[in-house]
Specification:
Helix content: 40-55%
Number of helices: 31
Distance between the termini: 88 Å
Shape: globular
Oligomer: single chain
Strand order of the largest sheet: 13-14-12-15-16-11-17
Strand content: 5-15%
């Protein structure tokens, strides 16, 4: 007994004050709101260990549920290190499978347990044929994802059309056709005597709800429950958790609403948000001390999520960095994506030369199709890399098929055909079409990957890699391009074990690195153009937040003005922290700014306050306006009209987009605040020395009442 008490005291000794409150909370509903890097796994494993060592609970009666096998294994290892064995730490599916297999002889009355299928794709293809729907491999993947979403959301085939309309889902084809495939899929599955992973969870629920003896045995075995990443629970998993609990109340959940990024799979933060309401006597503990990242990185994370809106924002946490001060995070602007990739690769090489291990560096992007440019740029500098959660670009099925089509087109394409036109024709032969990407995640990703291949052709046709003298006409054939693709593919096949990680932001959740590069932070990419509702946009913001919080020491955020040289200009992501991220785009190639003002102390962050209510302003738009978004506006609409007219004429004369002169938010701020002096003008976030020199006198004149014509005439006379 004395040894157990000593062990329990040592468990508490390793905790901070907030963690200790979570660990020692009494039996009953407990909700731990744990920010990124705040030690949530430490808290829940120490809670189990403390209660076990004080003999409050027996380890064999604990069921700890995670979302990945890796997290479950880590939990078991940590508990063993704390001297606690016998806890069942499993994923939802693993726990359900174990129970269904155990009870199958009893509930199936001698019938064999159905075989579990690992992938839906083959049955979905058969179901599509039965429903009269033609699909390829990519569409089959998207249909499988839709069926998985529906079943996880407890939506039956005949409810699918209405449910998707209510959810506002972007379906891979007409919802009624998806429902027909869904119906056929269920029929084929039953006739073949197989079950999928969602059926497994449903079977566990059915066994407990319909068989009192099974329920009694499960409830006798598991009396204390812990659920990790509770913001990612879907309705089916919550249903299973409810039947596991029965009338028991010893439940600990851990989550962070600001890391809700999987709603497209059916995950819902509603259960975390509603926990205090559904468990009236619940203890709520907040963990905000961040032990992962430097205070500078923590400051950026706070700045990103502080502007969040919607229901998840009600539980957002203001993290407090606990590590020593580090490098200031940076935002970099590049003229196009190849230049952005080259700069990132060069910086990776510099870090490695300084002694940073490649495996401690990550390049994170919104979609997997973005990896190609970074794979190539790293390979060019012989920087080893690994692709996490996806195939390498040249190993993807659609790219391999496209390269076969390109080789076949070499024989039938006239010699004088422009390379880009020939590549478009070859890609059309494998089902790709320029223009609007299709609906459905997998189909869209396939489209983006093939579009990236076309981008390589455009770059190669322009001779950017090996420019010839200007007086020489250059014609590159499909054969030349095929050889170039083979060269690039061969470079990327080199072994890369200890390498820089390339990963989508979704796949990076739960991981961390010393140095993180968040790339492609432009409007249309992050947030994606498919995020059309306020809820979808907020999820995109949370995705950036997750990316920022992956970094321990170095954080590099970047965006490109265009996809390729000379392409259509894009705005930086609205989620980028800082006074005015659009300002960097008008600077020279490779423009850089640090985020020191955003990562400073709380006192520094209070420097800009709402001129109406006095609240701290930390978002770009609110800092421009000088007021909270919810405070009343004193906009001079007539002045705003003159400012907009002036901006349009100035931008047309300079042949630049209007936002390069001033953003809409800046014009609104000018029309609200009506600065009467240079000092008042530069107090508006986003108006720096450069824009003050270019437009300061004109803006002050307009605010004072001058006409647009007179202001332009004066500006012309000065020049």
């Amino acid at each position: 007994m004395r040894g157990a008490q000593t062990g329990a005291r040592s468990v508490l000794a390793a905790l901070d004050d907030d963690q200790r409150i979570a660990v020692t909370a009494p039996a009953g509903p407990l909700c731990i709101l744990a920010g990124a890097g705040t030690g949530k796994t430490r808290a829940i494993t120490h809670r189990i260990a403390y209660r076990s060592l004080t003999e409050e609970i027996e380890p064999r009666h604990v069921l700890a549920v995670t979302f990945t096998a890796r997290a479950a294994a880590e939990m078991r290892a940590r508990l063993a290190a704390l001297g606690v064995d016998g806890v069942s730490a499993r994923t939802f599916h693993s726990a359900a499978l174990r129970q269904v297999r155990y009870f199958a002889p009893r509930v199936l009355r001698g019938r064999a347990m159905p075989e579990l299928i690992e992938s839906k794709a083959r049955l979905v293809t058969l179901a599509a044929a039965r429903a009269g729907v033609r699909v390829d491999r990519t569409t089959a993947r998207d249909l499988a994802g839709e069926i998985e979403w529906a079943k996880s959301s407890l939506v039956e085939p005949d409810e699918y059309v209405v449910a998707t309309a209510k959810a506002g889902r972007d379906t891979p084809m007409e919802a009624a056709r998806v429902a027909a495939v869904f119906t056929a899929y269920e029929q084929i599955k039953r006739s073949n005597g197989v079950v999928d992973f969602e059926d497994l969870l449903r079977a566990a629920v059915w066994a407990i709800e319909e068989h009192p003896d099974v329920a009694d045995q499960v409830h006798a075995q598991y009396r204390h429950f812990v659920v990790d990443e509770y913001q990612d629970v879907n309705p089916l998993q919550q249903r299973l958790l409810d039947v596991w609990l029965g009338d028991r109340r010893d439940l600990t959940v851990v989550g962070d609403a600001s890391q809700t990024i999987y709603s497209f799979t059916g995950a819902s933060s509603a259960y975390l948000l509603d926990f205090p309401r559904t468990h009236r006597d619940a203890v709520i503990v907040r963990l905000v001390r961040d032990y992962r990242s430097t205070p500078q990185v923590v400051g950026v994370a706070n700045a990103v999520i502080r502007q969040a809106r919607g229901v998840e924002a009600k539980l957002r946490l203001e993290l407090v960095g606990q590590r020593r001060s580090g490098a200031e995070p940076e935002v970099h602007f590049h003229p196009d994506e190849p230049a952005e990739a080259a700069a990132v690769a060069a910086r990776c090489a510099e870090l490695i030369a300084r002694g940073v291990k490649p495996l401690e560096i990550a390049i994170l992007f919104r979609i997997n199709a973005q990896s190609q440019a970074y794979e190539e740029a790293l390979a060019e500098l012989t920087v080893p890399y690994v692709v996490h959660g996806a195939e390498r670009f040249f190993e993807r099925t659609e790219i391999r098929h496209a390269m076969v089509a390109l080789r076949a087109a070499e024989r039938s394409t006239p010699a004088d055909t422009p390379l880009v036109a020939a590549v478009v024709s070859a890609l059309e032969a494998v089902g790709w079409r320029p223009g609007q990407p299709p609906g459905g995640g997998a189909a869209r990703e396939r489209w983006e990957a093939l579009a990236a291949l076309l981008g390589l052709a455009e770059e190669f046709a322009g001779g950017r890699r090996a420019p010839e003298p200007p007086e020489e006409a250059v014609h590159r054939s499909l054969a030349d391009f095929g050889s170039e693709l083979s060269r690039r593919a061969a470079m990327q096949h080199a072994p890369a074990i200890d390498g820089v990680t390339l990963s989508s932001l979704h796949s990076a959740k739960g991981l961390e690195w010393d140095a993180v590069f968040l790339v492609g932070l432009a409007e249309g990419t992050l947030p994606t153009i498919y995020a059309k509702t306020p809820e979808a946009l907020e999820e995109e913001r949370r995705l950036l937040y997750v990316g920022v919080t992956r970094a321990r020491e170095w954080l590099w955020m970047s965006y490109a003005g265009a996809r390729s040289s000379g392409g259509r200009q894009r705005r930086p992501s609205r989620f980028l922290p800082g006074p005015d991220p659009a300002d960097a785009r008008v600077n020279a190639t490779g423009a850089t700014r640090t985020l020191k003002s955003r990562a400073g102390s709380a006192a520094e962050r209070r420097g800009v306050s709402c001129r109406i209510c006095g609240a701290a302003l930390l978002g770009g738009a609110e800092r421009k306006l000088g007021r909270c978004a919810t405070c009343p506006s004193d906009l001079d609409e007539e002045l705003l009209g003159r400012l907009q007219e002036w901006r349009a004429l100035v931008s047309a004369t300079a042949k630049v987009p209007a936002y390069v002169v001033f953003t809409d938010a800046t014009l609104t701020a000018l029309a609200e605040r009506q600065p009467g002096s240079v000092k008042a003008l530069i107090e508006i976030a986003g108006i720096g020395p450069r824009k003050l020199g270019m437009y300061g006198e004109s803006v002050l004149a307009l605010v004072a009442g001058a006409s647009v014509d007179s202001v332009l005439a004066d500006a012309g006379a000065e020049r």
